[in-house]
Amino acid sequence: MNTNIFSCNRLDANQHLRSQKVKELIAYCEKCSQEGKVVDIGEVAFKTNLNLMSNTLFSKDLADPSSDSKVELKDVICSIVVEVRKPNLVDFFHILEKIDPQGVNRRATISFGKLFRLFDDLIIEQLEERRRGFSEKCDVLETLLDITEKDPEEMNHNHINSKFTSMDVRFKLDSSGVPAGLAPPSSISAINSSAYFL
């Protein structure tokens, strides 16, 4: 399935979207330069990377690089990454799992819930477009929805949510400069399985 989703042909079909996002970033920086405004490189880079990824996944921008508004998704992903990186007693003493003495799993579950609601909204929106016959997209979600239609046993709504969550959190771990391998194993596996517990 991953070969189909991330094939060269599939990614090349959205190359124009990625080029457009980079052009928008350059145009925004030029505009700020002309107006004498300070550019928050970290925020603009995050929004551009988020839009590059979201266009590949959903053919849609999730952040406006020219806006000063905060991106809720960034806060949610950052809170998940913070929890995933924390040393957790449960990783060493599995008997404490039900107690969750540090509250790491509780806080991570709340953040995952917010992330799943965001992805649910995007999935429902694209399903509505498909029902109305407006969906001519060539993105990852469209591919997953095609697989769901053909074989509901292989892929369902929870699987899609879990895949997107895994991609987003790993993207944040990778782009933050700290290898995903440094995160506790139980937290990384929670990324893939937490869709089934919410």
UniProtKB/TrEMBL annotation:
Any one Gene Ontology molecular-function term assigned to this protein's record: oxidoreductase activity, acting on paired donors, with incorporation or reduction of molecular oxygen
Pfam families in UniProt: p450
PANTHER family, alphabetized: CYTOCHROME P450 FAMILY 1, CYTOCHROME P450 SUPERFAMILY PROTEIN
Name of the featured protein: Geraniol 8-hydroxylase
Source organism per UniProt: Capsicum baccatum
